Amino acid sequence: MKPASVLIVEDEMVTALDLQAKLVNIGFTVPSIVNSGEEAVDMAAELRPDVVLMDIVLQGEVDGIQAAKKISSLDIPVVFLTAYSDEKTLQRAKSTSPYGYIIKPYPDKDLELALETAIQKHQEYRDKVELIRYKGLGKGVPLTSQDDEISWEERPRILIVEDEIITAMDLTAQLSDKGYLVVDTVANGQEAIQKVELFRPDLVLMDIVLSGELDGISVAEHIHDLDIPVVFLSAYTDDATVERAIKTSPYGYLPKPYQMDELYSTLETALQQHRSETDRIKKIDQKITTKEGEMVIEKTAVFFISAIIISLIVYSLATRSMTWLMYLLFIPAIYNLFIVGISLKKPSPPGGKDQPFVSILIPAHNEEFTIERCVRSLAELDYYADGKRNYEIIVINDGSTDKTGEVLARLKGEFEYLRIVTRKPPRAGRGKGYVLNDGVRICQGEVIAVFDADARIDPDFLGKIIPYLDEEDVAGVQARVRMYNADRNLLTLMQEVEFSIFGNVILRARDVMGKSGFLGGNGQLTRKKFVEDIEGWDGFAVTEDLNMSVKLIMDGNKIRYCPEAVVWQEAVPEWKAFFRQRVRWATGNLETLFVYLAPLIDAKIPLYKKVDSIQYLVFLLFTVFVMLGYIVAILNLTYVARFSMEAPVIIGLISTVAFFPGVLLGIRRDKVGVLRSLVRAVEYWAYCLYLIPLFFAAFIHMLTRKERSWAKTKHTGD
Asked: Does the keyword Coiled coil apply (predicted)?
């Protein structure tokens, strides 16, 4: 079994080296020693140790408690090791939900027990989270029910299990003086189990040697599923006893004889950790329950729409009439022409003058071929304030199994402002939203910029896009997206055309219409306060950028589009990988539509924003019918199959030609010649036929998937 790793955070180097020697001698590994809070956060994020041993007084502006708060948010356990035992410091430290609080000077055995207990307890918590993810709360996951608790008063209720009556009396007096309520003292193991079930205390202070047949460890095993924290207080610290005790996942193990301040800090951190853990588990379960409900909504919607489509197909085949399709296509046709007309107007120029500090986040999973070029491109940004670099780069390495980690380690030695966050299984591979949220937890910027690992930009990118954050209610800005390998083949060229239309027409028009654009995931900027207001990215969402955009719009915020700032990305050159990517995009689009349609209708935003947002989300469905309409028209013209289309000529004409003005305008705005634009428009029309099988593939995927997952596109850097 691989030895557990401990990151030492200590401002006194002599003390740190002594600690390192002790830990290595015990059997731990020490991947690094740091002396400041800032370094502690960076090293913990990059190395992901099994536990962080944290002093409180550190070098730099960030103390150990502030650092512990950020480190704990990354789901890394922290144990404090400090000379401070005063109430104020303890309460501050307790607010970070640490897994232990050791007071200097300390016996070496106390240190060993505290670390082993913390690692075991955190592993049990992770196991609970995984169990909830796949089975749900209550199915093998113990959790104290508030209905089962006896709330006599607000003081924490402690049950003392101790076979020495004098020791038990001393403990009762000491704990009462500290503000605890001792509900009872028992000396017998079997009686201890009965008292725990009767009183449901907030914590059990457990000796190991008891009268009767059951010892304290056996009692802890019996009451484990009641989810009541246990702290062992025992004179026995031999390896065999400790190993048995640690397997019960206690919240502490304090050897006798003990100091009262040690016992108090152990009990306080144990109670806080249990409360925090319980709250986190409930929130996770609530989130998963909500997402399971959303998947039911999605599947119901897919069945409903599928039934309508099948009914229309049967009707059309039976009556040989497609008149209904002409009227249906008239709706998106008119809206498309409206969008084209709006895009002819010039958007309002940016008016922002501020230069906020920017945190650049790059999620990376197996990106050995692209990540270096991406980081070097971002490192050349010309964005300074008062002569100082005004941005940081944070790469979140999401469980990469290739050489991504090696490349990043080398780059970090070259760029001191490059920060690395490492995610390991089982947390890795869950979804891009989770990855980005880890970056947000440690970032320092007022503005968060997100780039994919294949992104390439010019040095003036931030200088061009930051001014678009020109109003207090502008939550984000999307840059223009282009393909750096557009000339590779026809498929990559069509992706360039597609994004030209999206940027030059659709996003431009939405910027004119009340600055109601959408974020695209690559080259997007958001103000950190708005990200925090909506609790970050939705890790369950397949398209986290679209999900965030809808939430920001429903809150009444604006999203702008900056055509001057361009982010270049890699177009997918092969049809199989391309189709897989687009199935994910279509699935994300449809899930957002089905889940947020009702909330959008109820949102307190202007009617035109509701209509525009809903139209944007149903655009895929309408486009599928548009392409189907063209196929029906071709079948009629070639006499392969005949369907009557009896709508007025003007409706048929508008429905037929409305596809092309936006396409031509999007291409022409990139200064492409007229003849070549016409050719590309026809090619793009043929390219869009893939939307028909894509539509059905996305529907099948939504019906058959059991959970939402991140199917990342592979980049080659070519």
From this structure: no
How far apart (Å, rounded) are the C-alpha atoms in residues 559 and 465? 12
Angle at CA of residue 586, ends 580 and 587, nearest 5°: 90
Q: Please, are residues 474 and 559 in contact by the beta-carbon 8 Å criterion?
A: yes
Task: Give 332-362 as a DSSP string.
Answer: HHHHHHHHHHHHTSPPPPP-------EEEEE
Q: Quick one: 326-704 is in which CATH superfamily? A: Spore Coat Polysaccharide Biosynthesis Protein SpsA; Chain A (3.90.550.10)
pLDDT of 146: 43
Asked if residue 428 lies in contact with residue 399, where contact means CB atoms within 8 angstroms, the answer is: yes
Q: The tokens 């897919």 sit on which residue? A: 302
Q: How confident is the model at residue 223 (pLDDT cuts 50, 70, 90)?
A: very high
Q: How far is CA 300 from the centre of its chain?
A: 26
Q: What average pLDDT is seen over the chain? A: 91
Of 442, 528, 614, which Cα lies nearest the Cα of 74? Answer: 442
CB distance 211 to 163 below 8 Å: yes
Provide the whole-model pTM.
0.90
Percent of the chain with pLDDT over 90: 73
Q: Is 48 helix (H, G, I), strand (E, B) or coil?
A: coil
Q: Are strands 456-457 and 474-483 parallel, antiparallel or unpaired?
A: unpaired
Rounded to whole angstroms, the Cα distance separating 83 from 104 reads 5
203 has pLDDT over 60: yes
Tell me how far apart the alpha carbons of residues 5 and 26 are, in angstroms, rounded to a whole number: 12
Q: CA-CA distance, 377 to 159, in Å (whole number)? A: 61
Q: In this structure, what token pair is assigned to residue 92?
A: 């501050």
For 44, 269, 307, 361, 388, the CA distances from 38, given in Å and listed in that order, are 10, 24, 57, 18, 19
**DSSP states of 135-194 as a string?**
H-TTSS-----GGG---S-SSPEEEEE-S-HHHHHHHHHHHHHTT-EEEEEE-BHHHHHH
CB neighbours (10 Å) of residue 487? 10
State the residue for tokens 């940027």.
Answer: 503
pLDDT tens figures, 518-567: 999 899 999 999 999 999 999 889 899 999 999 999 999 999 999 999 99
Mean pLDDT of 102-115: 93
| Number of alpha carbons in the 13 Å side-chain half-sphere of residue 329 | 28
Q: What does the pLDDT look like over 406-443, one tens digit per residue?
A: 999 999 999 999 999 999 988 888 889 999 999 999 99
pLDDT of 140 > 60? The answer is: no
Between 646 and 265, the more confident residue is 265
Angle between helices 575-602 and 607-637 (to 10 degrees): 140
Q: What span, in angstroms and rounded, lies between the C-alpha atoms of 138 and 128? A: 10
List 669's β-bridge partners, or say none. none
User: Binning pLDDT at 50, 70 and 90, where does residue 152 land?
Assistant: very low
Q: What is the dihedral of CA 387, 391, 393, 394, to 10 degrees?
A: 140
Q: What is the pLDDT of residue 54?
A: 97
Burial class (CB in 10 A: 0-12, 13-18, 19+), 379: middle
Where helices occur in 320-427 by DSSP H, the ranges are 323-343, 371-379, 404-414
Return phi, psi of residue 235, to 5°: -85, -10
- Residue entry with tokens 């914590």: 203
Comparison of pLDDT for 211 and 154, the residue scoring more? 211
**Angle (CA) 595 428 397, round 5°:** 110
Q: How many CB atoms lie within 10 A of CB 33?
A: 17
% of residues, the chain, pLDDT over 70:
96
The single-letter DSSP state of residue 504 is: I
Buried (b) or exposed (e) across 38-53, using 16+ Cβ within 10 A? bbbbbbbbbebbbbbb
With contact defined as beta carbons under 8 Å apart, do 499 and 479 qualify?
no
- Residue-wise pLDDT for 296-324, tens only, equals 898 999 999 889 888 988 998 899 998 88
